[in-house]
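Protein in question quoted for reference:
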Amino acid sequence: MSHIENADRPVRLSARQRTVDGIRVVVLRGEIDDDVKDQLSAALRIENAAAPTRIVADLSEVTFMDSSGINVFVAAHRQVSGAGGWVRIAGAQKPVLHVLQLVGIDAVIPCHPTVEQALAG
């Protein structure tokens, strides 16, 4: 019966990337759960570890995120921080922001209301 229940839920996560003033903006859309954690990880992956990587994750079109997504963001934060970069989250909707705040991620990874504010820091 769980297969039928899950059939109505979006199982795909889309990720688009653009660069603004040397900062990678990753626009995510859909739901972030265990089924898409590898896709999220690939979208946030650092390709050139020699240069500090700065990433803004735009979550304005993400409707759900569980601990799988949080773990990916923490891993990305650790990876880029070690190389002098950073990760910021932008535009998280209330349910997603609540999850981020509940586990204290907003104290580690800055969360901003908009991409523009995240880019400005």
